[in-house]
Structures are given as C-alpha cells and as structure tokens.
Amino acid sequence: MMGSFSRQWCAYAFVALASCGPILAHAEAPAAPSPVVIDASSIDAGTVFPLAVIEASGMVTNTSNRPVKIARIIPRVAASRDEIQFEPKLLQPGQTLPVRVKASLGDHIGRFSLVYFAFADGQVEPVAKLAVRGFVDWIVDPVSTRFDAGVVKAGETVRHEFRPSIRSGVDLKLTSAEEIGGAFKASVAADGRSVIVELKQGMPWGPFDESVVIRTNNIEQGKVPFRISGEVRGAVVPNPASVDFGVIREGQTAEQIVRLTDESSRPLRVGEVSVAGADAQVRIEPCIPAAESCRLARIVMNGGKIGSAGLRGTINVVLPDYEQALPIAFRGALIGKDTVVQDLDKLIEGSRSSPEKISAMLKSSTSPSPRPPEMPKPDGVGPLLTWEAAGEAEVYGYEIYRAASENGVFERVNADIIKRLSNAQEVGSIYRWRDMSVASGTYWYYIGIVKLNGEKKPLNSPQRVLVKQ
Fold it and tell me: Which of 136, 168, 199 is the last residue of a domain?
C-alpha cells in the first residue's frame, strides 16, 4: 500500500491496490431465445441483511410490433419458493405488465441475483428475463456462525458453543432463540455473547445441515442464523456421501455411482428407493466383485431445460434391517445446449504460440491506458480520504473505519457501502470520501474491502490523521 499525507488543512490520502483471485475458466452465456420480443426491467433491491424478505416490483414491456400474451413467469431455480404476482395479459406493442416478487434470501451473504423467466402463451422458450439484484451485508460475521461437526457416530451427542464475531464498533447482543430445527436444542448465554447448540440423540443417518435463528437487539441485523452441519454415520456407509454431477448440458443425461457398504459385514438389504427434488432415476445393482454386504446405487440425472428443471435433490434408500432411510444428496449445474466453455489455460498457451495473438497483445500493452474512473472531491470540511484500487473483479465496495487511537475500537463511519466504480481489470478506480462528523483531534482510519461473496478484510493498516479546525 502506498500512502501520502497532505498538509492542506487536514486532508489525508490512501492509495492502495485491491487484489483479485485467479480466473480459472470462462463460460459464454447461452444465446438469447429468438425472437426476443419482451423487455424486462432489472430491479435493484439495495443492501439488506441475512434472512431478509425481498419485496420488489418490476415491469415487463412488449417491445415488438405484434401482440404477445405473457402466460407465466417462473423462477430460474425450480425449487424456489419465491412468490411471483402478475396477471396473465395480452400485451399490445408498447404495453407493460407490472410484476411483483417476494423472496426470502435465507442466510445467503454477499451479492445476490434472483432471476425469473417470462414465457409467452404457447412458447416453450422464455421471451424475457427479470432480475432482482442486491447485496447482503452483515454485522455478525457469518464465518463465526457456522460449525462443521464432521463425522458423528450414530447415537452420539454434538454440542457446540458459538461465540460470534461482531463488526467492530457495534454493540450487538443476542437475546433469544426464534426458530429451532427439530434436531436442535439451543440456548442464549446470559451475557448475550454466545449461543450453545446441541444436537439431539437419535439423529437419522446421513448428512445434516441444521440451523437456528437467534434474535438480537440490533435494528439492522435483528436476526442471526447459526448453522451446524456434519454427517451421522451408522452401519451402512455411502461412498460418496453426496454426489456432484458437475456441468450437465441442457437435454443430456449424466451418471454417477454410489457404493453402499454395511461395515458390520452383514448382508445388506435395500428396500424402497425414492428421489426428491430433481428429475433422476436410481437402480440398485450388485457390487463388482460381488459381496453380500455391498450394493451399488446407479444415479442417472436428466438435464432438462433452463428455467424448467432443478439439478439438486436427494435420494432416499430404505434399509429395512436398520429401520433407517439413508439420504444421498446430489446436485449438478445446467448449461445451455449451445454454451461454449473455454479453458483459459489453453487460451493462454495458444496465444504464446500464435504470432498474430502475441502481436495483438503487445499492441494492447503499448497503447495508452484508459483514464480511470474517479469520484469527485466531496464538498465540505473534514479529513478527505483518497484511495486508488485496481483489479476489482471480486470487490463489491469499501467501508471506512475510524478510531480515537491506533489500538482503539474502530467503528464504521460511512453510512452505506461505497460501491466499486469499475469492473475493468486493466483500469484502476480513484475514490474520495470526506469525514464530516469529527471535531479537532487525532484519529486513526483504515479502508475495508467488501468482496462480492460478503467477505471483508482491511485494505490498509490504520493511518494517523490530525484534524485541525
């Protein structure tokens, strides 16, 4: 980090570089359905907090030169419980259709995008896409509210005390448990600083991911979800315990095999097998080589159409000798049938061996750099903080923290997250922010990065600022 200090009254400048992670691959978006005759608005839900319920309104407009009847609007995620309110209507050219969306974000952190597809009457391809976008901020650090218990033997008790981390400068206390999963016992400590969660004995076999919602005394983040996950392992063990099909192209199928083994070496009997949540079939087959204590579950996943089928579900295998139904979770990622996936490593290797590509890269590198976007200098008086950042692909925005001493309690002093100015990798952005809430004295400031996934970290070390009035 480079820094400079201006003696003009009390101006202070931070100049820093925000780094971005490696890019592994690039996937081109599938081509839009043809013809696209509808234009749908993109809704900005702003900044919210975990467990928020989003209620947003948008418009769908017929931009074609012929009537189009909007018959249905569905979420991109088939298993979504979002509520979509609209009246099916024949839109004349230029007419609009109001759409209202209500969605619960759960314990998601960071940027979100809720996508909905609009279908015309009699058409199987969507004619428009409606998106609700925003950012989930936090006061209680989500990393400190999640616990992985790992593998738990059947009949054992799991107990964990959460002592969550709170955003610096905020006095938040936990007050009471509001929603408790059926497998949980939870209690809040008298000082409001911790939560004790205990999993009840007799949990069913298989993976578990349970949560409890705790109320707080904070107006902004009034609820905090605490999550505990792991796997209860009995006599019959699936390998793997969950299945990832990876990328499945629209309209195609994929297969995976799960090995079921009775570790007590007794003959394994398999009863009814059912599938919930996705279009898949399961066949139980003998192991190779054959063994009485072993069976194979062959799972065939059907890739449906984008916007009409989910690729996440659970297989339940009934084990009559143990009176258990063993769950096996599975998932996949659906891409369009014409989507092109490119490997950046191969592209880079190809560019090294191609004189034309190398020439183009050299030409690009020697051309004048574009002027970086920058914030105007804020009016008023007070310390002026300035910083420069490049490579902001993973950055959502920035926070300003201030304390009365270098080792004091830092408090966020900007009301809202300062959103990044540019998505470009090769162009830096220049930011300016003035603190108009301080009197004369000595203060310490640092800039915090807010990533798209909700992670936060300091951009620089605390810097001393002398304010004179």
Answer: 136
